[in-house]
Amino acid sequence: MVDVDDRTRSGADPLAIADVVEAVLAAEGAGDAEVGVVIVDAATMRAFNAEHRGKDEPTDVLAFPIDEEPEDLPGVPRLLGDVVICREVLEAQAAEAGVPVGAELTDLLVHGVLHLLGHDHETDRGEMLARQDELVAGLAPVPYTAA
Fold first, then answer.
1. Does 37 reside within a domain?
2. Domain count of the fold of the chain
3. What 8-state DSSP symbol labels residue 75?
4. Where in the sequence is the domain holding 67, given as residue range(s)?
5. C-alpha count within 13 angstroms, C-beta hemisphere, residue 139
6. For strand 61-65 and strand 33-40, is the pairing parallel, antiparallel, or unpaired?
7. Rg (CA), the chain
């Protein structure tokens, strides 16, 4: 199950966001899992980034895992955690890269979910980002009407 909370009313299609998250979970063999996706403004993201990473600036995506290890509880979904995306940074990065905002959003969603699943591009040898590229290549961009 995917719960989408677009606090900025960005115009991103919540059903398409859920589809992207579910596709990553399926591709990674995560089983039955719950993920929250929250789209926030730059001020909120800046506060999260300062509190959790010691960086006093907004960032594009943060992942907040809940269940680090899956438990074998039949019929009970694993609570993976939340992926938080900053609307302003998302839109700026898309413009800078010359890609549609929905394509950048898909990329950030995949990135965040991989972090929830325990991947870490800061400590691996490029495996996470390579897997991210693989997954994104097979996904459609999230429809995004505001940008």
1. yes
2. 1
3. T
4. 2-137
5. 30
6. unpaired
7. 15
- Say how many CA atoms lie within 13 Å of 52 toward its Cβ: 14
**H helix runs in the chain, sequence order:** 14-27, 42-53, 87-97, 101-116, 127-137
Cα atoms in the Cβ-side hemisphere of radius 13 Å centred on 79 = 3
Domain annotation covers residue 83: yes
Q: What are 12's two structure tokens?
A: 């991103």
How high is the pLDDT of residue 72?
60
pLDDT digits (tens, 9 = 90+) for 42-91: 999 999 999 999 999 999 999 999 865 555 666 666 788 999 999 999 99
Residues linked to residue 38 through DSSP beta bridges, in sequence order: 5, 84
pLDDT digits (tens, 9 = 90+) for 109-130: 999 999 998 887 777 777 888 9
Q: Residue 75 belongs to a domain with what CATH number?
A: 3.40.390.30
Per DSSP, what are the bridge partners of residue 39? 6, 85
Q: Quick one: tokens of 57? A: 């600036």
- Residues 64, 85: Cα–Cα separation, whole Å: 11
Which residues have CB under 8 Å from 70's CB, separation 6+? Answer: 31, 78
Stated pTM of the model: 0.90
Token pair recorded at residue 117: 């699943």
